[in-house]
Structure formats: C-alpha cells, structure tokens
Amino acid sequence: MITHLKDRQYYIDLYDHSTVDDARRNIKYYDKFFDEFQKKLPTDETIEKPGNALILNVYYMQSVGMELLNRYENRDDSVDEWISSDELRDRRISNARLAKEPNCQYCDKNGLRIINKSLTHRRVNGVYNNHEEVLFMLHCPHCDKNNAFWEDGTVWKPNPTLCPKCNGQMAHKTKEYKKSVDFLYTCPLCHHSYKEKLDFKDKKEAVDPNYGKDRAHYCLLDKEFRDHLFGMRQTINDMAELGKEFEEKAENKHIYDAIDEIKKPKIAELVEILRPVLEKSGYVDFNLEKPEIGKDVIVGFSCLDSKSDRNDYDSKKTLQKLIRKELDDTNWRLMSDGVSYRLGCLSGRLRAYEREEDLKRLVMQNKNLTKNYKNLDSKNKSTNNIIKDKDGNEIIL
Ligand SMILES: [Zn+2]
Ligand SMILES: [Zn+2]
Q1: CB neighbours of 310 closer than 8 A, spacing ≥ 6?
Q2: Under 8 Å CB-to-CB from 347, ≥6 apart: which residues?
Q3: Which listed ligand is nearest to 191 at the C-alpha?
Q4: pLDDT for the residue numbered 174
C-alpha cells in the first residue's frame, strides 16, 4: 500500500530545501546590484557610509530578506499543512472500498485479491481530472494477471502512446536488462518507430558541499542574523509608513492648508458672530445654553423671532440659512436635528469639529474652503531616492 505520510523531518527538509533554492537564486540579484553599486561609487565614498548602507540593506531585504523572514515565519504552518494533507490522502485510501466486486477482465472469474490502492488523477477524454481518486490494483489467482479498477468500479484504461507523426496508437515491445528496460515503439499505421530506455541505476544526488552552511544561513537558524533581519524589516516598514504619510500630506496639501484656514471660534465668540447677523433679520435675544463637552463640543442656542408676520416654517428656514452661511468658514455646524419653533421661540444645537479627520471631511464637503488652493502644484515629488528591485518595482527611500 502506498502511504503518503512521512515523519515530520521529511517535510522540514523539503521546506528548507526550497528556501535555500529560492534564496540562492535571489541572492544573485543582490550580488549584481552590490557590484554595480560599488563600481558607481564616488572615489571618496565607501560602501559603509550610512546612506549607501541603507540603500544596500533595503535592496537586500527586497530581493532576499523579506522572503527569508516570511518563510521562517510560515515554516511550522506549512509543514503542518503538508502533514495533514498527506494524512487526509492516506485516510482516503484506507477508507476506500470498491463499489462492487469486479470479475477478472482477462478470465472473467471472481475472487480477485486487492494488492494495492493509490490516489491518482483519472484521465477523461484525454484530460486529467483535477481531483484525485482511489485506484485499486487487484490480482487474479486464476490467470495470474493484474487488474486495475477505480473506486466506483470502472476499469482503469492505460493512457495510449500516440504516434508523433500520424497520431495513431503506438504498439510497444519491451526488452528487460539487469539495470534497464528498453521500450521499442512502432506505429502500425505509418511504421514510425523509436526507442526509449529506462535506467534503474541509482542516480547519486550531486554532492552539495555548501548546503549545510546555506541552510543554516537562509533558514535563519542563527538567532543573531534572524534578529538583524527582523530589525531591518521593522525599519523598512516604519520608513514606508512615514513615506506614505508625507505623500498623503503633499498630495492633499490644498486640504491641509484649508484646514489651517478654518476659523475656530470659542464658544463665547459664537455669540459675537451670530447675534448681530440674526438681529438684522429680526431674530432677537440670541443666547447659548451650557455646552455639553463629550467627544465633540455641543452647545444649544435659542432666540426669539420679532417679526410677527413670519410663519413658523419661514422663520425656521430663514434662521437655518443665516446660521449655516455665517458658520461656513468655521469648525462649527448646525446639527442635523435642525431648528425647532414654538410660539416665536426658536432653538437648536451647534457642534464643533476639532479632530483632523473631521476637519478634513468638513473641508472636502465645502468647496469654498478649498478653492483657493486648487491650483497649487502639490506633486513636486522628489525622485532622487528611488531604486528598482529585482522585479522592476520602484523602492522609494
Ligand atoms: Zn483472471
Ligand atoms: Zn504513425
């Protein structure tokens, strides 16, 4: 019976092998960059100069270091995943039962004995299925031949070898030697033929004298080197975060300038701003209530309508319009519950916005506040500190 599950070390070795292969491939990009960088260096500068060292470090991290850290961090999870996937495959095989007891395809007798089960992809109309199915190998004790059936009872069909010249089905003969087998393929239609040789000589894996050293290095078994890489990744992430912030500030300079321009009157000043304007339109006795200080500052107000010929609807609308217009260039807003009216007495609430995010929103909702800054060229980005990584992506330093 083919079993897939192997001991944990097998998967660890496999994972590390792949880490080393990738790293050996990628370090070449860094080595090349390093050589070119060194050649272009002004004669009075060394590679250790802080700016130069930073560029090299960033390039190293982008081409090799980040991936090494990722692989280090995902090592246990990947190994666990492989193990459970193989456990699952083994369980599928051991739980598989033939849908019906088949007769021998060659002598039609029954009483076949299962000699093997395996998971493999079934080929249907020349295309392999994505999912694996259990294939049973059975031995016939009567005619001594082997039969293969899929779990659902259908007979396994060998994949025909097709003639490369005319696409006919090739016939083949085998000749066995001690350490190899020769296959001679002949096409019955066009008589094209060729030979294939299968060697059993155990191929010795090429000796890789640096593997042990490279594995310890690239799989980050050395704590000092590992901590060094983690530190560099943190630095690069911090730099990127800072860079993004600068970029956002530069791109939205007109908004931030407008935020600086917003007037932020104190509560007492609101009375000075609103009272004269409202009085001019017939609203008298404008007063503020005690402010509620919470996440935002909210303050209620009231006033009296002195125009006896104004109905309640007009009175409310006019007051709202006046207040909105007057507070437009400030961080105060009339709250959405609006203004209420009873017997000529009007009241409502005002809210002050103080956090940068809120102010930004106020500015963006209000075209008047940004219009002065629209034409400023804010995209004067510096391109001096950009290098390209191995995939051609720009790294901004
Ligand atoms: Zn048989
Ligand atoms: Zn042919």
Answers
A1: 282, 318
A2: 300, 301, 302, 303, 339, 340
A3: 2
A4: 82
All residues with CB under 5 Å from ion ligand 1: 104, 106-107, 140, 142-143
Ligand number with the minimum distance to the CA of 108 = 1
| Pair 60, 395: CB distance under 8 Å | no
Cα(190) to ligand 2 centroid in Å equals 4
Ligand number, closest to the Cα atom of 141:
1
Distance, CA 172 to ligand 2 centroid (Å)?
Answer: 13
The alpha carbon of 166 and the centre of ligand 2 are apart by a number of angstroms equal to 4
pLDDT at 181 over 90: no
Ligand at minimal distance from the CA of 109 is 1
Integer Cα distance of 141 and 32 in angstroms: 65
User: Any idea where the domains of the chain sit in the sequence?
Assistant: 1-96+222-252, 113-199, 259-373
174 CA distance to ligand 2 middle (Å): 19
pLDDT above 70: residue 391: no
Q: What are phi and psi of 112, to 5 degrees?
A: -70, 150
Q: Is the confidence at residue 339, as pLDDT, over 70? A: yes
Nearest ligand, CA 193: 2
Residue 367 confidence (pLDDT): 63
94 Cα: distance to centroid of ligand 1 (angstroms): 25
pLDDT of residue 338: 80
The rounded distance, in Å, linking the Cα atoms of 247 and 362 is 21
Q: List, for residues 194-252, the tens digit of each pLDDT value.
A: 998 888 776 666 789 999 999 999 999 999 999 999 999 999 899 888 888 888 888 88
The third-level CATH classification (topology) of the domain covering 259-373 is Alpha-Beta Plaits (3.30.70)
Region 50-54 average pLDDT:
83
- Return the ∠ at Cα 383 (arms to 378 and 389), rounded to 5°: 130
